[in-house]
Amino acid sequence: xxxxxxxxxxxxxxxxxxxxxxxxxxxxxxxxxxxxxxxxxxxxxxxxxxxxxxxxxxxxxxxxxxxxxxxxxxxxxxxxxxxxxxxxxxxxxxxxxxxxxxxxxxxxxxxxxxxxxxxxxxxxxxxxxxxxxxxxxxxxxxxxxxxxxxxxxxxxxxxxxxxxxxxxxxxxxxxxxxxxxxxxxxxxxxxxxxxxxxxxxxxxxxxxxxxxxxxxxxxxxxxxxxxxxxxxxxxxxxxxxxxxxxxxxxxxxxxxxxxxxxxxxxxxxxxxxxxxxxxxxxxxxxxxxxxxxxxxxxxxxxxxxxxxxxxxxxxxxxxxxxxxxxxxxxxxxxxxxxxxxxxxxxxxxxxxxxxxxxxxxxxxxxxxxxxxxxxxxxxxxxxxxxxxxxxxxxxxxxxxxxxxxxxxxxxxxxxxxxxxxxxxxxxxxxxxxxxxxxxxxxxxxx
Length: 446
Known about the structure:
- The protein is mainly beta.
- Helices cover about 5% and strands about 35% of the residues.
- It has a 14-stranded parallel sheet with strand order 1-2-5-8-11-14-18-22-26-29-32-35-37-39, covered by helices on one side. It has a 12-stranded parallel sheet with strand order 4-7-10-13-16-20-24-28-31-34-36-38. Strands 3-6-9-12-15-19-23-27-30-33 form a 10-stranded parallel sheet, with no helix packed on it.
- The termini are far apart.
């Protein structure tokens, strides 16, 4: 027992001191990294992390750090700003890997929590610029994530030597930022550009849920979507019988533009996918985003397997500005006829509970295209949207119904009148319709 402890009055004070001494608790420290050998700081980020304790802060001076950063404890890693502090991961798997995977991992019960990374440019990694696996309450903010996914073989869409726990990684190598088995993360105000894909949320190692992706500029990622929420096959080490799911996430106030243009039809502005048996991507909200000029539709909601317990339901698409995107090649099934589309929905299995509301969709040949295959029970709600393009406002290309009441069709006469957008397909309810545009707060995003 240490001697000469300070005298404290009262039992509570004595107990507090005893607890601090016995448990070894100490205040969080701030460590520094600097290339200058006379700075008194650690020379590398890795050395500072190795010396850090949970809860510490590491500040990184301006400069280029040729390294892969691995974080396995709670801490804050603070660069001097993306314009000044660069992690160059050339020849390495990742720029930053926040790794909560352990041999005793119970998916959905993450023990790595409270990690913050801000103020870096992260570039040139073989796979993800920033990878987060099995962690909670992670914050990635004010970073520039560029020119990653260097291992992608664009000739065949493969990523040689990508870790085995990352399944289904064709044509993206994990994208610029990837969350796997992550909950309650905030990915905010980052620039994610010129990677194979932009930001990916998936579920190979555990459920990915209740994350917020907001204020990011996701542009010019050539071979995949700007922002993707996808359910994938579970990693073998989890011994899971079914995918965990990507659900209850919020995609808000992002600019996702000019993605998926490296090859024809490679990427949407935002993609929500549950492609195979038992995949689950549900209950997500895509709100107040600018989705323009992408290789696939502004929003693509797709599954591809029939009646195999897939859940791609209850997703909400609201208050987005969508314009000038590419064709919905999966939804519009006649070869060679797919045209520019704002929102596309393909349901080979039943998709229920989708709400498309308060969006402005323009400069598209089809504003909303729905193909629910043979699912007569499928129902889509599309209300209070501005569909002023003068082409096809809503196309129902399969079975099921679309409740499309209270939309603005580009003129006061309603769908099908001269100057208005039209409707194709059966079982689309359009009356009553709006006789004036919906007043949306999207002017700043145009």
